[in-house]
Amino acid sequence: RSCSFTGFSTVQSRKLAKSLSRSSVRSRMSLKAPKAYNSLQKGALIWDPKPLQVKKIFEALKKGLNEYLEAHQAELDYLSGRHKDTKRNSRLAFYYDLDKQIRSVERYIRKLEFHISKVEELYEAYCIQCRLRDGATNMKQAFSLSPATKASRESLVELYKNVQECTEDMCFIEGALEVHLGEFHVKMKGLVGFARLCPGDQYEVFMRLGRQKWRLKGKIETDDSQTWDEEEKIFIPNLHEKFEIKVTELRGLATILVGVVTCDSINFFTTKPQAIIVDITELGTIKLRLEVLW
């Protein structure tokens, strides 16, 4: 009985191996690794795929892209209506300018549609590799519990390779998907602290997203306004990392830690600028105000 089980599973594992080779992302897709993105940099590949996190980012990204598509489609409909009216009134100069705007919006809509289809294609390939890896992992566990035979040992080796290949492909797709996440433009809007902020106080804000860093210093002026040495920073979204924010107070040569917090970026994938207020201290006595535009 154990022999028949082993023989059947060996055949299944070989079929699975063929399926994996046919479904290999790198054999089907010519995806190159741009240098500007963390997950695709040499030596920076994370060999620990996170399907649940990727699913959340994919859904947020697709929703945001569809919002942009709907907004530009509404703009196109509005311009097309004016275009018809202008044509009847025969104001040629304005008509041709409007025609140029319409063509520009149409080109942007086509780019958005291609962007959405590419993201969907990548995520579909990712889900396939995820299911194949789960299947190979389950079969590997089954073989490890069966009597040790030459056939079962060979199947275990083959299944181990299959799991590794699926893992590599999933990580590769995560890096390729990260290229399509766009940019976050983060603006510094200042600290809020009421009685905690006094004229002359100096603070340092340090933000990190993966390997990307932003360090800026600010001062509370006598009229309670704030001046900061930088106002805006562009971050490339990361599938695996959250924003880390650290605020310290500068007192001469000494620094006093105000607080360290993390902030998820999943809600930033939207057409409208997001006003973010982050509690830096546990009681919320000092908050950090940011504006994020995707």
UniProtKB/TrEMBL annotation:
A Pfam family it matches = PL48
Domain annotation FAM65 N-terminal: ranges: 1-294
Domain of life (superkingdom)? Eukaryota
Q: Which family does it belong to?
A: Belongs to the RIPOR family.
> What is the name of the protein in this document?
RIPR3 protein
Gene that encodes the chain: Ripor3
